[in-house]
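User: Can you predict the 3D structure for this chain?
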Amino acid sequence: MRSDDLPVFAVVGRVNMGKSTVLATLLEIDDNEVLRVSSTPGETTHCQPHRVVFGNRECVRFIDSPGFSRPVEALRAIQRMHGEGTPGLDSLRRFVAQAGEDFGDEKRLLEPLLEGAGVLYVVDPAKPLRDDFLAEMEILRWTGRPRLAVLNRRGDASGPDEEQWRARLGGAFNLVRTFDAHRARYDERLRLLKALLEIEERHRRQLEETIALVEDEWQRRREAAAEIVIGFLEAALGLRVSATLEAREWRSRTRRGRQVEMLERRYFEDLSRLERRCWNDLLGIYRHHLLQAEARADAFAGIDLESMETWTKWGLGRTQLATAAAVAGGAAGLAVDVATGGLTHGAGTLIGALGGAAAAWFKGGALPDLRIDLRGGVKLGTGEGRSLVLGPPGNPNFPWILLDGVLTRYQRMLSRAHGRRDDEVLAGSEAGFTRRFPPLRRDLLAKWFGTCLKGVSNRALEPAVFNALLEALAEVEIAG
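Assistant: Here is the predicted structure, written as C-alpha cells:
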C-alpha cells in the first residue's frame, strides 16, 4: 500500500461524516465515477486509493476508507484481545486478522494504517460528541500514526459542541484543522495540504515538493485562463455578421428590416458560441464537470446585452469610461500626428481624445446599438447590391461588460467546491470588477479594445494585456 518514499494518508471517520466530500474537494474530483460522494450511509465499502500525480510521478496517495460502523464494540474487542494496558499495533493486527465480518468496515479502514499510512480523521462538529466518536479517536490513537483531525464544518457558524470536539480531538491527534468541504477554495485546500507537513516529518521533503508543484500548477492554470480570455475578447470584439441584399430588396423597408433582425439573431448566437467555447475551456482547466456553461440555447448564462440591468451593474462608470475613451482616442490621434510627420502639431491627439471622451460620456449609460455598415458596389445578377454588416455594438462600454461577465463567472467557478454533486449553471455576480481596476490598467485595456473593435488587434500590446488580465484574475481569486 505504501513505499518508504511515498506519503500515504487514509481518510477515516464515522459513516456519513463527509470523508469522501473532503477528499473530493481537496483533490478536485467532481466525478462520481472516480470518487463517489453520497448522503447514503455506507456508500464507501472498501479502501479506494487516489493518487496525486505530477509528471507521471506519484507524489502523495490518499485512501478513501469505509467509515466506522461499530466503533464501541470494536474498541472492546481489541481491548479483550490485548488484555491489560494500552493496545498498540500488534493488537490491532490481531484484531484485523481474527475479527469476524461483523467488524468488516473497521478491519478494512485499519489495514492502510497498519501498513504505515497517516490519518485524516473527518468529523462533523455539528453532531453531538457521543461515546462512539470517542471510541473511534481511541482506536486511531492506538495506531501511533501521524494524525490530523479535520472538522468538516458546513458554513461559517460553529456548532454548540465544536469547542468540546476540539478539546477531545486535541488530546488524541497531532493537529486539528477546520475545513468546509462544500465551500473550500484553492487557498483553503492548500492550507489543509500544508497541515500535513506538521504531522508527517518522515516525508517532509516529498510533501514540500508536492505543495510547490500544486502552487506552480495553479499559476499555470491562471496563465492559461488569461490566454483564453484574451482570445475570447479579441474574437468577440471583432465579431461581425453580414448579408447581401439585391437592389430591389434594399429598396423595400420591410425586406431590409427582416434582414437586420436576422443579422441581430445571428450576431448574438455567434457571440454566445464564442463565450460557450471560452467557458468550456476554462471549466476544463479547473476540472469542473458538473458546473455548466449553459442551461438551454435560448437562455445561455452569458451576457444579456439587451438587459438594462447588465449595462448598469457591469462595465465602467460614465466618468471612468470617458477617461479611458479619451486615452484610447488620444492614442489613435497620436498615430495620425506621427503619420503626418508632426504637421498636425498635435491636433490629431487632441481631437481624438476629445471625440472619444465625448462619445463615451453620451453613450456610456445607454443600451447597446448594433452598428450597421451599408456597403455598396456588390454586384448580384444584373443589379447593384448592398451589403449589411452588423456588429459589434456601438456602445463604448461593450468591451468592459464582456470582461466583467468573464470575471464574475470566473469568481463563481473558483467558489465551486469539487465535493459538491449538484448541477449548477454558471452565473455572474451582482457587481463587476472593472470599475475597481487601477487607471493604468483601464487605459491599457481601452487602447487594446479599440484596436480589437476595428478588427486589427494590436499584437505589440498583447504582452502587457496578458499581464493585466493575469493580475485581474488573481484579484478575483482574492476577492472571492
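Residues 204-237 form the longest helix (34 residues). The radius of gyration is 30 Å.
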